[in-house]
Write a structure and sequence with these properties.
This protein is an alpha/beta fold. The chain has helices spanning 2-17, 22-39, 46-50, 62-88, 91-95, 113-121, 132-142, 159-170, 172-183, 198-206, 248-264, 268-281, 286-295, and strands spanning 127-130, 185-190, 210-216, 219-224, 237-238.
């Protein structure tokens, strides 16, 4: 059916362009697959045979089609059960190195609430560089007084800008200074458990022109020593980890966030026991094993 095929291709394309659209493709694609499979249950070209017409296409016998149908159903059920188990136990998110986890409600660690409050309270202004994964929250909380560098709607920024962003987060030693000069960056907002922030936290922490001014489990703020006036300097704020003060839904990623920050800043004696604590909470957290191994 050409119409179904066209709809399928359209939704496949928009999901390819932007990951956030994958859910739409999954919904539409599932419906089209179900309809196509239901239509396929009728013996192929049976009506033509009954009419006495010769056909160059083979006939699928009902018995064989029934076996295929049952086999497909069993495979689909097993796959759905395996994926559901993986999502419920958070193994899927760990495998994808995603910050999400299964459950109901809001997980505060995904949003740099403390870091944004710090920026607003101390009236830090100018041009920001931010991790794309926290850009949406920054827009929601700070616009129009402060404008974001990038957010999750990456399709609107263009390929050249995204290539520039990716070069910086992958290799800040080479590309950061050029980008900071080009866009006149005054401060940076990063996230300790975001893969986009890992290399930049390492780089800026060692860079004498950038001062670590704020850190907690959901946000890291660096100020540009060369662009922020001396009268605007603020007292650095660093939150201490107290596991019992965090909801159970937040504890795993909170401890992981602190551990990552200490690893990136080469404070290995602090990072090591925190990774061990992560593995007590979730023994299957592969990234914790990898980072713990990196310390040794």
């Amino acid at each position: 059916n050409f119409c179904r095929f066209f709809v399928y291709i359209v939704f496949l394309y928009i999901s390819w362009v932007t990951v956030r659209n994958t859910a739409f493709f999954a919904f539409v694609g599932s419906l089209i697959t179900i309809v196509n499979f239901a239509n396929g249950r009728k013996p192929f070209m049976a009506n033509s045979i009954e009419a006495g017409l010769k056909s160059f296409l083979p006939i699928i016998e009902p018995k064989i089609l029934k076996i295929i149908e049952y086999g497909y159903t069993v495979i689909l059920v097993i796959f759905c059960c395996a994926m559901s188990y993986s999502v419920i136990t958070n193994r899927y998110y760990r495998f994808e190195k995603a910050m999400q986890q299964f459950g109901i409600g809001k997980v505060d660690i995904f949003f740099p609430t403390g870091a944004v409050d710090f920026i607003k309270k101390n009236n830090i202004t100018g041009n920001i560089f931010n991790d794309a994964l926290v850009g949406g929250y920054f827009i929601w909380n700070c616009y129009p007084q402060r404008k974001v560098f990038i957010d999750g709607k990456m399709e609107v920024y263009g390929e050249d800008f995204l290539a520039e962003y990716k070069s910086v987060i992958d290799n800040p030693d080479v590309y950061w200074q050029g980008l900071a000069d080009k866009y006149k960056i005054d401060y940076a907002l990063l996230h300790p458990i975001s893969p986009h922030s890992k290399n930049l936290i390492k780089y800026l922490y060692k860079n004498k022109n950038w001062i670590l001014s704020y850190f907690d489990e959901s946000g890291v703020v660096f100020l540009n020593n060369l662009r922020i006036p001396a009268t605007c300097w603020v007292m650095p704020t660093f939150r201490e980890l107290d596991i019992e003060n965090y909801p159970k839904a937040d504890r795993l990623l909170t401890v992981m966030s602190f551990a990552n920050f200490f690893l990136y800043t080469e404070q290995y004696q602090k990072a090591r026991p925190l990774y061990a604590e992560v593995l007590k909470i979730d023994p299957d957290f592969a990234e914790a094993y990898i980072n713990l191994g990196a310390i040794f």
